[in-house]
Design brief:
About 75% of the residues lie in helices and about 0% in strands. It is mostly helical. It has one domain. The chain starts with a helix and ends with a helix.
Length: about 90
């Protein structure tokens, strides 16, 4: 039951981040302050870097590596992958 709640919370957070990313891309909203601009830039730079790490980790440690492919298309999906898969795989291998 506890794992189901953790997965639900992760799904809600990742869903909210995805909705935010879609809203920023398709709306006419522009950040008015330098802090807001920096936050939006960090948001859109952080997601691809994390997804590239996740792809690298899949190829090196997952069998088969295709199982989590769709997670790459979710902004910040690598956070879920890290807490549910990568951390446990690293503990097992050490």
């Amino acid at each position: 039951m506890k794992a189901a709640i953790k997965n639900l919370v992760a799904f809600l957070i990742l869903g909210t981040l995805t909705v935010f990313a879609v809203w920023v891309v398709f709306s006419s909203w522009v950040p008015k302050t330098p802090l807001g601009l920096f936050g939006v830039m960090a948001f859109f730079i952080g997601a691809p870097i994390g997804n590239l790490w996740m792809l690298y980790h899949w190829v090196m440690r997952e069998k088969p590596p295709v199982a989590y492919f769709l997670l790459v298309f979710v902004p910040y999906g690598f956070v879920w992958y890290y807490f549910n898969r990568a951390r446990h795989l690293n503990q097992i291998s050490n």
